[in-house]
Specification:
The protein is α/β, with parallel strands linked by helices. The protein folds into two domains: about 170 residues, 3-Layer(aba) Sandwich (Rossmann fold); about 90 residues, Pantoate--beta-alanine Ligase, Chain: A,domain 2. It is about 40% helix and about 20% strand. It contains ten helices and nine strands. Strands 1-4-3-2-5-6 form a six-stranded parallel β-sheet, sandwiched between helices. α9 runs antiparallel to α10. The longest helix has 20 residues.
């Protein structure tokens, strides 16, 4: 595996690969890698000639400065995992390399998708996500890019970003959420849970499964209230239990023929967790 810390040498190396007609797959991450990330890398490995991974903890997408400070740094372990997974290139930029002085921050016209759910509770978060992903795509110029379904709204935002920046030619692969045996969605934030909290955290997946089981026969408003009650009884401070249109993430009042997704954001102790599940 080759490690690059500077954008220009990486871009030059990848340009040479493109001239050799090699297909470049890209997995952007914030590090603290786990099996969820490895699932993205394995899918990328199967479908690409060159696998590029980036590790950059992006400060512009954190609303809470303490959350940014506490984000786990496991770089030595990450590098070992990437080598085992068959990654060809790791891009490990500094903040100054990602956001040099001459680059002016853009505003991305994301529409309603950045005002609901995570957008409502973390204003500006998706602008920060787009800033980082846009910059990384400029540097890597991949043929295809891989994201995990656990961050469902982020996947929809990246899809919108590709359209806004006229990069529809880049294939967006959304890889199913990887879960622990308990059902808990794999997340770098799980490292901050105590063993007792980890047991309680399973309630998120159980609640999503409850929504899926009852979506056909229970009115949506009532079902969301029941989901909220399940989480609160497990000790969570709940931001939302939502049932939304899986394409637009707009709220739905009743089940028709649309594809639906259940989404939850809830905090245990000082750790905020998100998860989702397709319901029909």
């Amino acid at each position: 595996m080759i490690l690059f810390k500077k954008a220009i040498p990486l871009s030059q190396w990848l340009e040479a690969a493109r001239k050799r007609e090699q297909r470049i797959g890209f997995v952007p991450t914030m590090g603290a890698l786990h099996d969820g990330h490895l699932a993205l890398l394995h899918a990328c490995r199967e479908q690409s000639d060159i696998v590029v991974c980036s590790i950059f903890v992006n400060p512009t997408q954190f609303n809470n400065p303490r959350d940014y400070e506490l984000y786990p740094n496991t770089i030595e372990k990450d590098i070992a995992l990437l080598i085992q997974a068959g990654c060809d290139v790791l891009f490990l930029p500094s903040k100054e390399e990602m956001y040099p002085d001459h680059i002016v921050a853009k505003h991305y016209d994301l529409g309603e998708i950045e005002t609901v759910l995570e957008g409502q509770y973390r204003p500006g978060h998706f602008q920060g996500v787009c800033q980082a992903v846009d910059r990384l795509l400029q540097i890597v110029v991949p043929h295809q890019v891989y994201f995990g379904q656990k961050d469902y709204q982020q996947c929809m935002v990246v899809k919108k970003l590709l359209a806004l920046t006229h990069r529809e030619i880049i294939l967006l692969h959304i890889i199913p959420t990887q879960r622990e045996k308990s059902g808990l969605a794999m997340s770098s934030r799980n490292l901050r849970l105590t063993p007792e909290q980890r047991e309680k955290a399973v309630a998120i997946f159980k609640t999503l499964t409850f929504l899926k089981t009852h979506i056909a026969q229970t009115p949506i408003a009532e079902l969301k209230e029941q989901g909220l009650d399940l989480l609160q009884r497990s000790g969570f401070k709940v931001d939302y239990v939502a049932i939304a249109d899986a394409e637009t993430l707009g709220p739905v009042a009743e089940v028709r023929n649309q594809k639906l997704v259940g989404l939850i954001a809830a905090t245990l102790g000082d750790v905020r967790l998100i998860d989702n599940l397709l319901l029909n």
